[in-house]
Design goal:
Blueprint (H helix, E strand, L loop, with lengths): L6 E12 L2 E8 L9 E2 L2 E3 L17 H13 L5 E10 L8 E9 L2 H7 L5 E4 L10 H16 L15 H12 L5 H11 L2 E7 L8 E5 L10
Parallel strand pairs: 1-6
Antiparallel strand pairs: 1-2, 1-4, 2-3, 2-7, 5-6, 8-9
């Protein structure tokens, strides 16, 4: 018995912080199905057919696929991206049985703004619009992952530019975790974890410029904030 092959795609949840609100980058689909609806950036896994030319593009794995797709759509590869989970089933795509390997990426807003307003529309992750396929479900899973992981890691730092102030760092954690953090306690924990380092640079264009810091490396903590 012959069986139809499933559609195999990747989808990327690009999360960023705009005006201290965690937002997701969506675009409008320009083809069926769900033409005109908001959706996550994504695409098909490229597999070279035996009859294809030797130089035909082929993705080594889904990690390569999502990086290719994001380079094509944004012009860059997010510095932090991780696989979320696989979403699959007959009902998620009207064409046929499909599966998508979903990824979540955290991107500083400055990088996404350089892509241009014509590419992405930004929405508060807690107030999502109607979306194509099962993309709202994918976004919800990504946000839950990020908020949980942010409580015990330096993950929110990847939403910041390379250099940032400690106040910006605290504000980022507060926005992602949806809570207020005591300033003195937060800074003691950051010092104890030894995950950021001071630079010789300071803010510009403000009355009382604060020192700028940079992340040493991604780290997991033994206790949550």
């Amino acid at each position: 018995m012959n069986h139809a092959l499933p559609l195999v795609t990747v989808d990327a949840v690009l999360l960023t912080l705009r005006e201290r609100v965690l937002q997701v980058a969506l675009h409008r689909r320009d083809k069926a199905p769900d033409h005109g609806m908001l959706a996550l950036p994504g695409g098909f896994v490229h597999v070279r057919d035996d009859a294809s030319p030797d130089d035909a593009a082929e993705d080594e794995d889904t990690d390569a696929t999502v990086r290719r797709v994001l380079r094509d759509k944004t012009g860059f590869t997010p510095r932090y991206i991780e696989q979320l989970k696989v979403f699959s089933g007959r009902q998620r795509d009207p064409r046929r049985w499909s599966l998508s390997v979903a990824y979540v990426a955290l991107v500083p807003v400055e990088e996404l703004d350089r892509v241009g307003d014509s590419v992405f529309h930004f929405y508060d992750v807690d107030h999502l619009p109607d979306m194509a396929f099962d993309h709202a479900q994918i976004v919800a899973a990504a946000v839950a992952r990020v908020r949980n992981k942010s409580g015990y890691s330096t993950l929110p730092c990847t939403l910041l530019p390379e250099l940032f102030t400690l106040s910006q760092l605290q504000a980022t954690y507060e926005a992602v975790l949806q809570t207020r953090l005591d300033k003195s306690s937060f800074r003691r924990r950051i010092d104890a974890w030894d995950v950021v380092e001071a630079t010789e640079a300071y803010q510009t264009g403000v009355q009382r410029p604060a020192r700028l810091y940079r992340l040493k490396d991604f780290a997991l903590f033994d206790k949550t904030l």
